[in-house]
Fold this protein.
Amino acid sequence: MKVGDLVKLKIDTGPLGFVLRIDKQYYGANTAYKISHVERGKCIRSNMVDVIATTADGIRDRVLVLWNETKAREAGYEYCESTELEVISESR
């Protein structure tokens, strides 16, 4: 995905938009501290960490999209995660 690409939402069949800006590595993390089990109602402390493991989503980009005007959505700018968008045509 690059600036100038035509995109649409993966979930929705409707609006099309142009990528105006991409903020690399904006959301998420590659690894996280994880605790295997904690009893209900107990406090979680920093020394209870069992393992450092990978996260499910990893690092994602934030994309500024200019949407066209449709009946369901007003035209305008919106930030979306890169995983929510599908590239329809690529700019050169």
In short: The mean pLDDT is 86. Residues 6-37+44-89 form one domain. The first strand starts at residue 6 and ends at 9.
